[in-house]
Amino acid sequence: MAIHLEEFQSLLDELPGSAQELLRASWNEAARTLTPRGLDNYLKGAVALHHLGRGEDLVVGFIQSMPELARGVGEEALPDLVNFLLGMASKTSGHVLALIVGTAPLAAQRLSDAGLFVSYLKVLEIMLTQAPRGLRPMLENLDRLLTQLTLGGLRRWVQWGAQAYRSDLDGQVAYFSLQSADALAVLQQERKGTLFVDIQRRLNIYQRAMWGRDFFLRPTSGDYESREELKPYIEHYVIHIADAYDNYKPLGPDTPPEQCVPALEIYRAAVNHCAAHLVFTQQPLSMQMLHPAQMAVIEVFEDARVEELSIRQFPNMREAWLTLHPVFDYSREPQSIGELLDRLGRALLEEQSHDPHPWVREAVVAFHAQTDLSTNQTSWNLGIDLSHKLFELPLPEFNNRTDHRLSAIYRDDNRAVWQLEEYDEAQALEATWQTRQQVRKKVSLMEMVNEVDNEFAGDDAQEVWELPTEYLFDDGVSINELEGRPPTSEPFYYPEWDYKIQLERPNWVTVLERHPPVGELAVIENIIIENKPVISRLKFLIESIVPQGMQRIRHVEDGDDLDINAAVRAMIDIRMGQLPDPRIMMRHKRTLRELAVMVLLDMSESSNDKVRGHDYTIMDLTRAATVLFANALDRIGDPFAIHGFCSDGRHDVHYHRFKDFDQPYGDIAKARLAGMKGHLSTRMGAALRHAGHYLAQQLKSKRVIFVITDGEPADNDVYDPQYLRHDTKHAIEELASKGITVYALSLDPHADQYVSRIFGAKNFTVIDEVERLPEKLPTLYMSLTR
Amino acid sequence: MSLPATAVVAPTPGSLDSYHVTREPYYRAIGDEVALYEAAYSVRMPIMLKGPTGCGKTRFVEYMAWKLGKPLITVACNEDMTASDLVGRFLLDASGTRWQDGPLALASRYGAICYLDEVVEARQDTTVVIHPLTDARRILPLEKKGEIIEAHPDFQVVISYNPGYQSLMKDLKQSTKQRFGALDFNYPEHEVEAEIIAHESGVSMDVAKNLVHIAERARNLKGHGLDEGISTRMLIYAGRLITQGVAPLAACRVALVRPITDDPDMRDALDAAVTTYF
Ligand SMILES: Nc1ncnc2c1ncn2[C@@H]1O[C@H](COP(=O)(O)OP(=O)(O)OP(=O)(O)O)[C@@H](O)[C@H]1O
Ligand SMILES: [Mg+2]
C-alpha cells in the first residue's frame, strides 16, 4: 500500500517550510525505504528535533540522511538516534548535532549492524562528556577512523585522547583531528586486525573442507571493552568467535613480524578447536559435585583429548595450535594453579614435553597412557585423579575468574564441555533448522465444514485444506469472495540464505502463483503506435541477427561433403599434371541461437512512482519496454517467457505468469501485460529461484533471466537491509551453477554499488535515462546475445 | 583422436597393429570390475564407464584391452565433432578421391575396442551413429560410401561418462544410455589411492597418503563451491613434482589447488588444508 505524505499532514504542518519542501521532494525514496512505522518515526523525529530549536540545519539534515541510515543498519536505528540527539542537546551546539546526523549514514554503512550503531552512539556520548572540543574534528575524520578501527578500537582511541587532553582544549582539537603524533600512534596501535566478516566465507569453506560438514559461526564483538576478552565459545551448537583478531605476537609487543601469527590462522585454530569439541563429544559432562578446580583440570584434559583426536587426522594442527600457546620459563616455579594448568595445556599438546614440573609430568604420562580417547569420560577420570594431587601442592586456592589468564587465545571457554542445567530441546532443534512443512490437503465439503476451525488461516498454518469446489457460507458468499483473494496455485517453497549464519533456511519462503488480471488490449496497441520510430530502428537490428540454420564452410581439407566446384578445379589441376589444392571439402556448421530468455518484472509498490519530470509511472515504462522486447524476441524467434513478482512477507511472494515459454505471444499475454499493477514489496531471491525453476526446463545452452527492477530487494518482514541483498546474491550464484545467467536492468536512480554487489560486475546496467528503457532493453539484449 | 599416418583403403590384415597395447598397463583393481568387464566383453555388451574425471577410467580400458589382447582405438569427443569424424569421409589424393575410414569404421571393420571418451561432449546427432553398432544389428552403415560394415566379432564399444559434471544441457539420450551396461568408477579407497599414487609418481607411501588426505578435503567441497574434487590424476602430477624435488607445498599449490579453482577464498581454504599435511 502506498503511504502518502498527506497522511501525515498534521505532523508536516509543524515543520518549517524548507523542511516541508525537502520532505515532499524526497518522500518517494523515504517511503520506499521505510515501513509505515518507520515513516511515522521519521516524521516524529523531524518534528521533535525542530522543537529543540537548534536550527533548521539539524532538521533538514535529519530528513536527508535518515533513509540512508535505514538502508545501512535498518530503520530501528532511527528512534535510537533521535533519543540520543535529544539527550545530548543540552551538551552541545546545534551545529555539532547536525554534524552527528550528517555523518550517521557513513557510520551506519561502515558498521552495518544495528547493535554496533547503538554502541557507536555511546562512543559519541563519551566524546561529548569528556572531550567536547574534539567531537567536530573527529566526525570530520570519521571515514578514515572507521576504515582503520573496529568500534572497540575507536572507543579506546577516543578514551586515550580524552584522558590525555582532559584539560588541554587545543590538544583535544589536535588529537581528534589526527594532527598530533600520539593520535596517529594510538591509531596505529588500535588498527583493526582481521575482521570476521571479511574472512567468514573462507572460514566456512575451510571448515567444510576439513571436517566434511558445516558448523554455525557467529561473530561476537568481544573486543569492545578490552582487547583481552576474545575467548570463543560454543553455545547451542553455534560457534561464537571474535569479530576481529589481531595478528598474534608470541613474544609480546616486540615480536619480529616474521614470527607473528596472522589473524586468519588464529581464526582457523579457533574454529578447528571448537569443531573438535563438537565432533568428538557425544554427551556433555555433568558438573554436579565438582569443585571449580576439578572442573578446570578436567577441561584441560578435555581440550587435550579432542585436540589429540584431531591431530590424528590432521597432523600439522599440532604445530598450528602450539604456536598460539604461551611459552613458559620452566626455571620459574608456577605461582598459581591457573599458571600450572596453562603449562599443562601446553605440555599435553606437545609431542615431547620438557616441562620439569612433577605434577605436569605425571599428568602428561597419565594422558599418554590412555588407550581409548573416544569419550570425555577419560578426561573426567584423569581430571579427578590429578586434581587430588594438585590440592597437595603448596599453591594458593584456585580462583576461577582471575587464575586463568595466559591460556591460548584460540581455545574456547569450555562452557560446552558441561551439561546445561536443563536441556533446551527447542534450541537444539532450531540449530538444525528442522523444517516444518505445511500440509495441504484436498478435502470434501463435509470434512471442511466439520473439521476446520479457522477458515482464514494464514499461510503459516500447519495444515491447509483445500476444497476443490467453492466453499459457500449460508448466505451464499463463497469463502474466497469473502476473503477477496484471487485463486492461487499450490504453494512453492524455496530456501532463503541467511548471511548471518551463512546457511540456507530451508523452505523459508512461499511463492504463490496468481492469475494475472487482464487489461485493455488497446493499452498495448497504443504502446506500439507511440513507439513507431523506435520499432523501426529496432527492426534493422533484429534483421542483422544471424539467421538460424546450416552454414556451409567451404575450402576445408577435411569436411563433411565434397565441394563440387573445388573438386572439379582440383581434377583439372590433376589432369594438367599440376598439384591440386586439397581443400575441396566443405563442412556443415549448424548455427542455432541456443537461447531461452525469461523476463522477470519487479511489480512492487515503487513501480507506481512517477518517472521524474513525466506523468507516466515506472510501471508504464516497464510495460512499454516489455512490449517492445517481446515483439523483438518474437521476431528473432528466441523462446521467451514473461513473469512478474511482488511480495508480502515471506509467506506470500506473489508470482504472475504473463506469458510462458510454450504460449504464443498473443492477445492473452498482451491483455495480461496491460492489466499489470504494482503493489507490495520486492523479495527478489525467491522470485528468481522460481523463475529459474521454469527456465531450467528449457533445454537450451544459454539461459538468461532479465530482471527489470527499480530498487533493491526488500520486504515488509525484513528489517536488516543486508539480508535480502545477500539472499538475492546467493540465489543468483545458485542459478549460475545451473547454467542460468541473471542480468539486471536497474531503474533505481539511487542505485549504488549494491547493484554490482548483488548481480556481479558484468551482469547489470543502471538505466540512467529511464525514459529510454523501451529502446534500451531490446537493444541491450541483442548486443548481449549476438 | 590419432589416426595412423597411412590411410586404410582396403582391408589389410594386421592394419590395427599400431593400436595394440603392447606393454601391460599398471592398473590396480578396485573391486570386481575386471571380472565384470570380461563377462560383458564375452557377450560383446557395450559398456559405459561412469565416474568423475581422472579416476582411472581410461587406464582401465587400456588395461582390459591388453588383458583381452584386442586393439584399442580411443576417440576424445568434443562439441565440434561430426558424424564424419567418427565414421569416415572422402579425401582427395593424386589419383582422385579416396575414402578414409573414421575410427569407428576402423574398429568395427577390423575388430577393435572403440573407446569414446567423454561421449556427452559430442552433439546428440553425432552420438546416434553408434546406435546400429550397439544393438542386435551390430552394423555401421557408411551412407556416403554406400557400404554397410558388419561389425567384426571382436568389436566392442566403450564410452565414458561423468555423471557429476554435466550441465542440464548435456545429457545422453535415453535411447543411447539404454544400449549400454554400466560400471561405476570413483576415487579409490584411501589406502589404494595412495598405493596408485606412490606407484605412478614415485613418492613414498607417507607422502602419497598425505596427498590423498588433501584430496579428501577438496572432495568435501564438491557441490559447495567446487564443481569437481581433486582427482587421482592431479595427485599423481603433484607426486611427480615432489619426486622432481619440488617442495610439497609448492607442488600442491601448482598441481592441486591452482588448477581447480579461481575463487580466492576457495584457494585460501585449500592452501590452508594443504598446510595441515605438509
Ligand atoms: N585403479 C587405478 N590403477 C592404476 N592407475 C590408476 C587407477 N586409477 C587412477 N589411476 C591413475 O590416474 C590417472 C588418471 O586416470 P585416467 O586417465 O584413467 O582417468 P579417467 O577416469 O579416464 O579421466 P577422464 O574422465 O578425465 O578421462 C591414470 O593415468 C593413472 O595413473
Ligand atoms: Mg576447548
From TrEMBL, chain A:
CDD domains per record: vWA_norD_type
SMART domains: VWA (SM00327)
Matches recorded under Gene3D superfamilies: von Willebrand factor, type A domain
PANTHER family: NORD PROTEIN
Annotated ranges, domain VWFA: 596-784
Protein origin, superkingdom: Bacteria
Pfam family, one: VWA
Protein name (Swiss-Prot/TrEMBL): von Willebrand factor type A domain-containing protein
TrEMBL record, chain B:
InterPro entries: ATPase_dyneun-rel_AAA, CbbQ/NirQ/NorQ/GpvN, CbbQ_C, P-loop_NTPase
Molecular function GO terms recorded: ATP binding; ATP hydrolysis activity
Family annotation (Pfam families): AAA_5 (PF07728), CbbQ_C (PF08406)
Ranges of residues in domain ATPase dynein-related AAA: 47-180
Alphabetized UniProt keyword annotations: ATP-binding, Nucleotide-binding
Highest taxon of source: Bacteria
The CbbQ/NirQ/NorQ C-terminal domain, residue ranges: 193-276
Family: Belongs to the CbbQ/NirQ/NorQ/GpvN family.
Protein name from the UniProt record: Nitric oxide reductase NorQ protein
Protein's organism: Nitrosomonas eutropha
Taxonomic path: Bacteria, Pseudomonadati, Pseudomonadota, Betaproteobacteria, Nitrosomonadales
